[in-house]
């Protein structure tokens, strides 16, 4: 140390300043290397969780986001290998060795059988039930099981991109208590992140959920989700540095944000006006309503160009109509504004339209599940496979089916069934084109637009690789590559 002081004192003032400055820079660099930033990522989401449960999660984006991280995909994460029989009706899967639930119990074929049988039981009202109707499942050993199909089902492997439930946790819960069980919001999964805790407000609403890493490959050690009732509060939370990411950003709010990366995701999602065919039965009235809808106006004014037209163009005659009906939509700003544009356009041809805005939870419980609407402005997300059976087959008119228009056409039903049993992709596409022609003719819905999904994350978060994803929740598919710097 004395030697250091002698050297410093031997220098002139200019040399001394230069040496001390360089030493200071070296010290700062060493500190930045040795002290790594805390690997905690906080994301804000509009809405709140209800079922962090892969059997029930499909109708709520928040639930899907959480289950994506807490539960591994049966086909992509948990399966070591699979074989398909020559007749395409038997699928044998082998689980990876040493898989563990977050309570350190082993993942076995019994868990898979329990999950599939739960989905198939109508008492549980799983939205996934349609994908597993008429499908048998047999256990071969602790790691191996076999699906047995009555008919060829082209998108079957896609159907296996689901999480499974731990039998030892759920088997004692009665079917009538299944949807009410606390395990729905305090889940035990087998994915890269495990549930740590949650916080509730005084009135019992879930305000945040904290997850911690369960996978050594993951750099981020904690993910905290905070829940907000609307986008403005979400934006405010980011601007005040309470969160690092926004699950969704509307185009109009992009200019308000800084120090952020915006990922533009292309997902198979469309928004449409779904007519309740039991209430708005007049085809000519529906045609007149479709004829005056300006899709490009909605894309330009509401989405600020961040989207493209969905479905066919409608060239019906613009006749005046004498029709009164309600239009239900959720409280997303774009949908509220779109509803107002539609109302104005429809009033110009004589329609009397009452727009009703619902919170996300109320939307499901009070309107969608009981089909309590004349017309519904809503979005649907398609699977990676083009099979639209769940959205348009007449067997799906009642909850938990997703036939929101209550569309019922035997010809359409036949085409949908035949297409999902056809392995020849060209033939399958021909059948879907015939189905689309019927859909345009019968007009159970007015297809409006496919939005570009805007996902915002602070620039301090690195390693994110996103472009085309099947669902918004699939933005976490490469979470093991994310890190904070």
From TrEMBL:
It comes from the Bacteria. One of its GO terms (molecular function) is peptide transmembrane transporter activity. Gene3D superfamilies: Dipeptide-binding Protein, Domain 3, Periplasmic binding protein-like II. Pfam families: SBP_bac_5. Coiled coil: none annotated. The chain crosses the membrane at residues 18-35. InterPro entries: Peptide/Ni-bd (IPR030678), SBP_5 (IPR039424), SBP_5_dom (IPR000914). The keyword Transmembrane helix applies. One of its GO terms (cellular component) is periplasmic space. GO terms for biological process: peptide transport. Keywords: Membrane, Signal, Transmembrane, Transmembrane helix, Transport. Residues 77-310 form the Solute-binding protein family domain. Belongs to the bacterial solute-binding protein 5 family. PANTHER family: OLIGOPEPTIDE-BINDING PROTEIN APPA, PERIPLASMIC BINDING COMPONENT OF ABC TRANSPORTER. This is Solute-binding protein family 5 domain-containing protein. It comes from Candidatus Portnoybacteria bacterium CG23_combo_of_CG06-09_8_20_14_all_37_13.
